[in-house]
Predict the structure of G-protein coupled receptors family 1 profile domain-containing protein.
Amino acid sequence: KHLWWSGWEDHARTNGLMYEVALQNSSANHSSQFADVALLQTFKPLIIPCYALVVVVGVFGNYLLIYVICRTRKMHNVTNFFIGNLAFSDMLMCVTCVPFTLAYAFNPHGWVFGRSMCYLVFLIQPVTVYVSVFTLTAIAVDRYSATVHPLKKRTSVSTCAAVLIGIWLLSCALVAPAVMHTYHVEFKEEGFTICEEFWIGQEKERRAYAYSTLLVTYVLPLSAVFVCYLCITVKLKKCVAPGNRTKTQNAPQQARKRKIFRLVALLVSAFAVCWLPIHVFNVLRDIDIHLINKRYFLLIQLLCHLCAMSSSCCNPFLYAWLHDRFRTELKKMVKCNHRIGAPTNQCAATVVL
């Protein structure tokens, strides 16, 4: 999510990023009041390449995932549609969250993209985050149903489409209060503009919204994902192949179980670890902003944001690149594209059929 600015009416408490950057450039006093801004600028050569890497890997990895799913007919199933939606939201998150966050954080003039883009970007950014989180949960529930209850009727494509539409609508609804409190303010004399979320005189409402969003978009999805994959792991552990099989015959099955268990552990860990820092930072800031050292406030905030954005790079690898079918179909496409003199329709048939 974007770097929040908690309100201009209490600058000493909120430590507003854009306001401080502009004041730093226009004021002759560059003392300890702006120590966090100066420290952030010193790490600029390191932060920007890290964000650039996240964008390149996130966009390229998720694009390949979407491309393979769209081009390969036998991968057109409910689980892969969920994964495709996850890849699309992650790719959109990389395109909207990262460039605008960096430009806003390091530009001395603050928000330079205009009023319309202010509201549009600040709507798309959290929506893509929430869509990714809810889609991860939907994938976990779908895999739980397919593994623990294999005899039950699988989710239909129409139901999948309804769930995806519901995920996007729910995400937009959760963002609506924040967008209603987002303002585009120009300080013409100081030469800078802010685009931030203000809850002036509504501190209790702001905290209630922040904590409920944390519960709905992190605690509950993480709990659901953990429970689903725990049940899957237990089910696979108890699963025994029929007949009297020798130890050598059971080895492939045991290897498959270990592979799935490692994948499940990585999925839950990546989901929890990537988003934990930014949530902890926001909670500490809401409780008492002085719990975070002022000198390192902005640097910690940006690093937590970077960690959250890195989740968009993890998902393509964990959900697709580790799957044999995805790698097989990708190799077919690469081999087809490099085949000299092969007819186009022949290559398409190799991939799709």
